[in-house]
Structures are given as C-alpha cells and as structure tokens.
Design goal:
With 266 residues, the protein is of the alpha/beta class. Helices cover 36% and strands 23% of the residues. The structure holds S-adenosylmethionine.
C-alpha cells in the first residue's frame, strides 16, 4: 500500500517536473543561473574547505554541489532522480538517489547541509527540518533557501498575475506544495536545537526575456495542460502571460526568496 508520504513524493517526481520531461534540465539550469549568485554569496560566508563534509539535497542539475566541490569540500549530492548529476562523480562528488523525507543518514554525518527549493514541496516541513538537524555534526550549519508566492498577488500585469496565481493553486493541489510556508522563516528553525539562527530575504525581479522570465515560461508551459484542464485559467491567458514575459519592456516581481540558516552547537 502507498502511504500519503510516498504518494506525495511520487507526485513531485513523476509529475510535470519529472526529470523525464524534455525541457526539465534546461528549466533547472535557468533556475540555477538566477539563484546561484545569491546561494554562493551566502554559502561563501561559512568556512568550507577540504575537510568540510557537505550534503546538497535535491541537487537538481547540480550547480551548488559542483560549486562546493570546487571549494575542495567532500560533497554528497542527492536527488529523487540523479539523471542530471552524471558529471559530478568526476569531481569526486558522491551522488546518491535518496529521498530526504523517508531515507536516513547516520546522525552527525555532515558539517554543512544545503537545500534549495525542495522543502516547500514536502508534506511536513517541521518533520523534514528535524531530520536535517539530526544529520548535522556538532558545529555544523544548515542553510535553507525557499520561495513564497505572496508578491504575485500585487502584480499590476493582469495576465501574469492570473496565470501565476492559477499555477500556485495547481502546485498546492497537485503537488501538495506549501506556497507561503517560507514566509514564516526563520521561525520554523526556532526550537530545533540550532543556534545563531538568521534569515535573509529578497524579492526576485523578473524582466521580459531574462532567465527568470524564461524559467517561468518553461515552468508554466510544463504545467499548462493540467492547469487548463482543471479550469483554473484559459489557454488564451497563458499566451498573454508568455507575451508579457517575452516583452523587453516588462518588469515585475517574482517570488520572495528566504535564505535561513542556523548552527548546531559545537
Ligand atoms: C525545484 S527543484 C530545485 C533543484 C535545486 N535544488 C536547485 O535549486 O537548483 C527540486 C529538486 O528537489 C528534488 N526533490 C524533491 N523532493 C525530494 C526529496 N524528498 N528528496 C530529495 N530530493 C527531492 C527534485 O527531484 C528536484 O530535483
């Protein structure tokens, strides 16, 4: 029998964001190009060297694991599907097909754990965080980067707003994503045993034709059919939103991104 937890993971892994979808690798690379400068700036504030045991969870197309390996760290990169991580082994990265929600690591295995745009898709974030903390060695650091959708509701562009809000509803219903959970960060890290807990926030801009716009176009296109079939929004609205996202004069706000971190006492 399939449990609720396994079922939800299958909904992510086998759904519109499956690695088998032909545009998924490119979509993940666009996400990396938008987010990596911020991730690297934050991760670069921690002491990462040849003895640092790093865990990169939900590695996607692998850029953060690649960057950590470039710093000489001992990196483990995981994902539900590791088909985009083939080149990492050549860099000495241990690549694991691993579901962080149901599969374990020995307690205290890592000095740094990073997870980006994964937690909000899981059924119970508190449960996931307590598992992450248990895998940290004394003195180890947990870094979470997660998005929230609230800036979209205030968009002055009707087609962009309508389609993005339909997508948010679809994510919540079909994948089980908690689209505003990150808004509470860093509070979910309080009471987990972590100290020096902090958060950084920003709202990602989107300009017509830039990588963020192209990431959204592919994200929306991969989910378009089920969204239209559910009657959430029309095909015409998608076409109007795509025209906005391609227009060099278009400027709007995308998701709010929360980066939260804390340290296990040493
Ligand atoms: C939105 S993508 C983000 C990829 C990458 N973290 C990044 O920010 O570039 C989410 C990734 O998390 C993976 N994922 C989802 N649930 C997971 C789980 N329970 N354990 C490990 N990976 C998971 C997915 O397969 C996918 O590659």
């Amino acid at each position: 029998m399939t449990t609720q937890t396994e079922w939800r993971q299958e909904r992510y892994r086998d759904g519109v964001f499956s690695h088998a979808v032909d545009t998924e690798r490119h979509r993940l690379r666009l996400l990396e190009s938008v987010l990596d400068p911020h991730s690297q700036a934050r991760l670069g504030t921690f002491d990462i060297g040849p003895d640092t045991r790093c865990l990169e969870i939900g590695s996607g197309a692998g850029s953060v694991a690649r960057w950590l390996a470039g710093r000489g760290a001992r990196v483990t990169a995981t994902d539900l599907d590791v088909s985009f991580l083939g080149d990492l082994a050549d860099l000495g990265v241990r690549v694991l097909r691993h579901d962080m929600y149901t599969e374990d690591f020995p307690p205290g295995s890592f000095d740094l754990i990073h997870m980006r745009y994964v937690l909000v898709h899981l059924p119970d974030q508190d449960r996931a965080i307590s598992r992450l903390v248990s895998w940290l060695a004394p003195g180890g650091v947990l870094v979470l980067e997660e998005p929230a959708f609230f800036p979209i509701a205030g968009s002055p562009h009707p087609a962009y707003r309508e389609v993005m809000l339909a997508f948010r509803t679809y994510l919540e219903d079909a994948v089980g994503t908690r689209t505003e959970w990150a808004r509470a960060l860093p509070l979910p890290l309080a009471g987990t045993g972590l100290v020096d807990v902090e958060v950084d926030t920003r709202i990602q801009p989107v300009r017509g034709g830039d990588d963020e716009a192209e990431w959204w176009r592919l994200t929306l296109e991969q989910s378009r059919r089920p969204i239209v079939e559910r009657g959430l929004v029309s095909d015409e609205a998608f076409e109007l939103a795509y025209a906005e996202l391609a227009d060099p004069a278009f400027f709007d706000l995308s998701l709010a991104v929360f980066t939260a971190w804390g340290r296990r006492p040493g």
